[in-house]
Amino acid sequence: MIGLTRLLSLVVLVLLAAPPVRGADIDRTAVDFKTPAEIKWVRNAAGTNEQAVLFGDPSKPGPYVVRIKWLPGNMSRPHFHPNDRFFVVLSGAWWMGTGEKFDPDRTVPAPAGSYVIHYGGKVHFDGAKDEETIIQVWGMGPATATPAEKR
Q1: Mind listing the pLDDT tens digit for each residue in 56-107?
Q2: Better-scored residue on pLDDT, 22 or 58
Q3: Which of 39, 75, 76, 125 is deepest in the core (most CB within 10 A)?
Q4: Are strands 74-75 and 62-70 parallel, antiparallel or unpaired?
Q5: b vs e for 125-144, b when ≥16 Cβ sit within 10 Å of the residue's Cβ?
Q6: By three-state DSSP, how is residue 62 classified?
Q7: pTM to 2 decimal places
Q8: How far apart are CA 106 and CA 43, in angstroms?
Q9: In angstroms, rounded to a whole number, what is the distance separating the alpha carbons of residues 68 and 42?
């Protein structure tokens, strides 16, 4: 019994003396990432959604990646973009409609996991109905939206 007690004591001492386990350091110029805690969300002026820029600057020429968190009950009005834009629905259901007449009842849902393309110059509207929806969009900037009536 004394031998078992000494063995357990030795194991506890070894565990207490061991350094904490952590991931290895990597060359962040070769591989970079952001953890969810590091992603900075910014609410838009209208209070309808929040955005987090993950890569690039969508207001300037060049590639960009942005996450958009649509708050429940908020949809854009009919608009178009000059360039193709590519999306993945990360959570919730993203509702989409086409045409110059805003009609949320004629939208279709893209559930989490869906891949979506908005083709440049084509009028559409989209957003969240009864739940928060997070989408990730990428494309080539500048990422602008023009209201359909200004076509």
Answers
A1: 999 999 999 999 999 999 999 999 999 999 999 999 999 999 999 999 999 9
A2: 58
A3: 125
A4: unpaired
A5: bbbbbeeebbbebbbbbebe
A6: strand
A7: 0.80
A8: 27
A9: 9
